[in-house]
Write a structure and sequence with these properties.
about 270 residues; alpha/beta; Rossmann fold; Dihydrodipicolinate Reductase, domain 2; 2 domains; five-stranded mixed β-sheet; about 25% strand
Length: about 270
């Protein structure tokens, strides 16, 4: 079986660099495409791997895909560009893995339609860490037994979107269990607007912290009279996401479907 030919969009970003390293080190994959707005024309290997690999950085996504034999594109760019990037990739009939957050429900539905129209596969994951996925799954389990829940997500201060995609996904999973997680609260008055955080589905509050020193952390707090349950996950470096990214690349290469959430392709049996 031939290697999976992989392209990376946002190749010089912090996550993009990790994907470059992970794909290069994987025996069943081959890096064939690197897209970024900077250092165009230079060898991505010399910048990220300290060795030449004959894959030059390109800036024109459509031209690059058309001129290369690529099976899967991984996009770790910005919320402002991911939607248009994704449409270009899918319309080029190339499988897609998205690690950028910030897509709204309407955009997700459009990408789902494009996936099936073009007979390709798309996997969108708010978080590629297996630990973070377990946190979301455990939170959904706990939600059945508690009537109050709030989420605190903590990221580095260069993260542009708030709340994080992981927190939004966690809130949706909790909200799928029952209609209200703000039971028994008094009528509140915010002396400073936003002090109580953003209110997601089923009144699950999300609080976003942006601080240098953090990579990515999430805390889910459940409460009722007499007890508190706190679930927390911390990412210490970006390497922890690479197992999930590689699993996603392999999955979209072998399947033709639209998947939202890494938990849908993991087996914990």
């Amino acid at each position: 079986m031939s290697n999976i030919k992989v392209g990376v969009v946002g190749a010089l970003g912090k996550m993009g660099r990790e994907v470059i390293k992970a794909v290069f080190d994987n025996e069943s994959m081959e890096l064939v495409l690197a897209i970024d707005m900077f250092n165009v024309g230079l060898d991505i290997g010399e910048i990220v791997l300290n060795k030449k690999i004959d894959v030059k950085i390109e800036s024109d996504l459509c031209h690059a895909i058309e001129s290369k034999d690529v099976d899967v594109v991984v996009d770790f760019t910005q919320p402002s560009s991911i939607y248009n990037n994704a449409k270009k990739i899918l319309n080029s009939k190339v499988n897609l893995v998205i690690g950028t957050t910030g897509l709204n429900d309407e955009q997700l539905e459009e990408l789902k339609n494009l996936t099936y129209e073009n007979h390709v596969s798309t996997l969108i994951a708010p978080n590629f860490s297996t630990g973070a996925v377990l946190l979301m799954m455990f939170s959904k389990m706990a939600a059945k037994y508690f009537d109050n829940a709030e989420i605190i997500e903590l990221h580095h201060n260069q993260k542009k979107d708030a709340p994080s995609g992981t927190a939004i996904k966690t809130a949706k999973m909790i909200a799928s269990v029952k209609d209200n997680f703000e039971n028994g609260n008094c009528e509140e008055v915010e002396l400073i607007k936003g002090a109580r955080g953003a209110k997601a589905d089923s009144n699950v509050r999300i609080h976003s912290v942006r601080m240098p020193g953090f990579i990515a952390s999430e805390e889910v707090i459940f409460g009722e009279n007499g007890q508190i349950l706190t679930l927390r996950h911390d990412s210490m470096n970006r390497e922890c996401y690479m197992k999930g990214v590689l699993l996603s690349i392999d999955y979209v290469y072998k399947h033709k479907e639209f998947v939202y959430g890494l938990e849908n392709i993991l087996s914990f049996n």
